[in-house]
Every structure is written in structure tokens, then in C-alpha cells.
Amino acid sequence: MSLRIKRMLCAVLLLLAALTTTGCWNRIELNEVAITSATGVDWDGENWIVSYQVLIPAAISSVTGGSGGGGPKSPIIVYSTKGKTIRDAIMHSYSESPRKLFFAHNRVVVIGEKAMQRGVNELIDVYFRNSSTRETVSVLATPGTARRVLEQFMQLQAISGAGMKEIILSEMKNTSILPNIPVYQLAMEVIGDAKSAVVPEIFVSGTEDTSSLESFGSTSIPSKLKLGRLAVLKDDKMIGWMNRKESLGASYLRDSVQQSYVVVPCEDDKGKKGYNTIHVLKSSTKVIPKLQNGQLVFTADVDVTGTLMESNCAQDLYKPGVIQSLEQGGQKQVSNLLQEAWAKGQEMKADVFGAAEKTHRKYPKQWKEWSKNWDEVFKEAALEPKVKFRMARMGLSNKSFQYLMDKEGK
Q1: What are the residue boundaries of the Spore germination GerAC-like C-terminal domain, all occurrences included (predicted)?
Q2: Which of 13, 160, 397, 408 could form a disulfide with 154 if both were Cys (CB 3.0 to 4.6 A apart)?
Q3: Residue 352, domain extent
Q4: Do 204 and 332 have their domain in common?
Q5: How far apart are CA 226 and CA 160, in angstroms?
Q6: How many whole angstroms separate alpha carbon 333 and alpha carbon 367?
Q7: Distance between CA 340 and CA 246 in Å, rounded?
Q8: Same domain, 106 and 66
Q9: What's the pTM?
Q10: What is the pLDDT of residues 248-271, one digit of tens each?
Q11: How many domains does the chain have?
Q12: Nearest CA among 125, 106, 231 for reference residue 187
């Protein structure tokens, strides 16, 4: 067979293959969908209430400075539907929305406290069972209703759903007090050995709502969305809260501290007291289970590196004794955070630190017995913090400004 005939046959085959394709059979046009930036889930005692924060693309430009008559318009609209199941509630949206809800750009899901107390297993099932949703959506808890949170506008961010995502990422990166918990991580913790999980809190601070753009007509706003405590879940149900200090201790034990701050008391040569602020640059934690006289004990090996950011004590910062005092003060503060968080977890019988998984891996034979009553085993287990705190830098000046002022005054 000649080369020319082979080429002709290949061309015919390619043409036939092209004719059998169906094109973009499952395409989704932008004007057919309602893009959802945030979702809220509440429970009224009998039904699930699902709220949707839907974008209005034509109005976004007016809020962000684009031209258009009539002044700025709301870039979002919030509405809710009710059902016996979460999916049932979502299906009711077809009866009141001209467009199909599109969840691929959903950034956060906010869960009301009553819904958290009832359990999050149904919500997790919805996210893992449907291809239109993403498991990377961040989960937030609120002490009131989720709908109220979705209705609020945020400063510096036209779409509050995206703003809530950014604020939790910023908190995790810069202070590490609260973690970012995607849906898939929440699911892994709920079904883990300890069956305990955490979810950061978001709430409306202030008495008035900022659900109208008129609230931004002045330099201050009556209320704002703010991150707060850490919701603790046991067997997929919320059982209580950790305060921010306990939450930071939990972050150290979970080895999720990226950057943070430590405030250490100080005292100068004249007995005048003040505070030093240390910026934690790096931190790593290893929680190690061990048996001591038949009793399970955990050692928390924490390695912290920091730099001095502020000092209001009159002291020469490069004296070995001052540096040692800073390191000892930082070590004490971190150790206290660990102990407070551990004690709170034991009080709630919620191992949110990953201790169960580490124990399971190290002692698989004993775990068969411990797993039957892990809550009691964890409650009796002691924690031994071993913190290594190292000052990497003391800043641009080797003396505090207060020290220089005292020297000039002599």
C-alpha cells in the first residue's frame, strides 16, 4: 500500500472519529447559574435551613469603584430554603431561583451552633457525595445563626464569602490561634481514632448589622465579622468552646503554628516592670506517647525560634543574661499554653491533639484495649512539655529605647 493511500485512510478515520463526538454536551453557560460564594447551615428543631450567598456580577463593579448610575448596589443576595435533609433544602431552591445554584466557587460553609450540636455528619455526606461541591471549602462555626453571618458585608472585601476565607487564612498564617479546617480535614478528624475535631468560630461583633451598604457611609462601622474561639466536636457533635489562649496551645500541640507572638514580662535593674513582645518565626512540635510504670504519658517536644519585636524595659538586649531571660520567659509562656489546652481537652474528654493516632501507631497491641475507652485513658494521661525557645534576633538596636532614654536622663 502506497504512502499516499495510507494518509488518505488516516484522514478518513479521523473524520469519522470527529463525527462520532457529541461536542460540549454538558456545558454550563454563565447566565444559567447562580454563583454561590458562601453557604450557611442552621437547624430549627425540625428542619435544616440552608442559606446561600449568591453573587450579582453586574453590581460588583459599582461596589469596587466601577461606573454606573444610581450609586453602589449590593454585590450579593442571601436567601434560604428549608427541608428535612440538607439536600432536600437545596432542591427547594429551584422553586424560587431563576438560576441553578453553582457551588464550585463556594469558599466557606458557616454552621450555626444548633446545627453543630445536632451533628455535622449529614453535611459531610453531602459534600463527599456530590461532584459539584469541593472538599476544600473552609468550615466555620457561629454561636448564632449562619444566615446572619452571610448577610453581613465586610470592609475591604466586596464579597464577604471570599473575605471570610481570606480572614481565616490570614489568622492561621500570622497568629496561628485558629486553624483553617476544610471539609475533608473535618471528616478525617471526626472518623479518626479520637473522633474529635475543631472548627474556628466567626461571629458578628457589635449590636447592629452591616447588611446594608449604607453602613459604610462613614469611617467606622457599627459591627463587623470577627474570628473568635474554637468549637470542639466529639462524635461529630459540638460539645463546647476553647478560648483563644487554649486554642493557641492546641495549635502548638497540633503542630500547626506557622507564626505567632509571645508576650514575656521583664524587669530592669531598678525594678521597673514591663513587657517584651517576641515574634515566633518558626515552631515544630512532636507529641510522643510513652509508658511510665504502666501509665500512659505524653511528652510534647516543642522547638521555637523567635525575634524581639518590642521592649519597654530599660535593658541592654545583648547581655547574655537578658537573652537568657527572654528565652526562659518564652519557654514558660509556651509551656503554660500547652498545659492549659491539654487540661481543657481532658476536661471535655476530647482529644483534639492527635494523641490517639500517635498512640495507635506506637502501641498497636495495647491500643486494642485502650480504644474501647479512650476518653478515660486520655483524661488520665499526663503531659510533659519540653520547650526549647531560641532567640534568633534582637532587632536593629542592641538596647531598648527606654534604656537609651534613661541613659540620656542621667
Answers
A1: 230-395
A2: 160
A3: 256-410
A4: no
A5: 12
A6: 33
A7: 6
A8: yes
A9: 0.86
A10: 999 999 999 999 999 999 887 777
A11: 2
A12: 125
Same domain, 92 and 190: yes
Residue 326 has which C-alpha cell? 527572654
Q: For residue 176, is it within any domain?
A: yes
pLDDT in tens, 388-402: 999 998 866 666 556
- Last residue of one domain, picked from the residues 192, 211, 242: 242
Same domain, 54 and 200: yes
> Residues 269, 262: contact at Cβ < 8 Å?
no
Provide the grid cell at 182.
476544610
Q: Are residues 90 and 41 in the same domain?
A: yes
Residue of 362, 380, 389 whose CA lies nearest to 354: 362
CA 128 centroid distance within chain: 20
165 and 216 together in one domain? yes
Query: Do 208 and 324 share a structural domain?
Result: no
Phi-psi region of 206 (alpha: psi -120 to 50; beta: other; left: phi over 0): left
- Helices 244-253 and 320-348 pack at an angle, to 10 degrees, of 100
Query: All 3 cell numbers of residue 192?
Result: 479518626
Biggest alpha carbon–alpha carbon distance for the chain? 106
What is the per-residue pLDDT across 147-181, written as a single tens digit (0 to 9) for each?
Answer: 999 999 888 888 999 999 999 999 999 999 999 99
Q: Count the Cβ atoms, other than its own, within 10 Å of residue 389.
A: 24
Count of Cβ atoms closer than 10 Å to residue 25 Cβ:
6
Place of cell 450609586: 71
Domain assignment present for residue 316? The answer is yes
Domain boundary residue, one of 242, 264, 286: 242
Q: Please name which of 141, 105, 101 lies closest in space to residue 120, comparing C-alpha atoms.
A: 141
With respect to residue 23, please indicate whether it lies within any of the assigned structural domains.
no
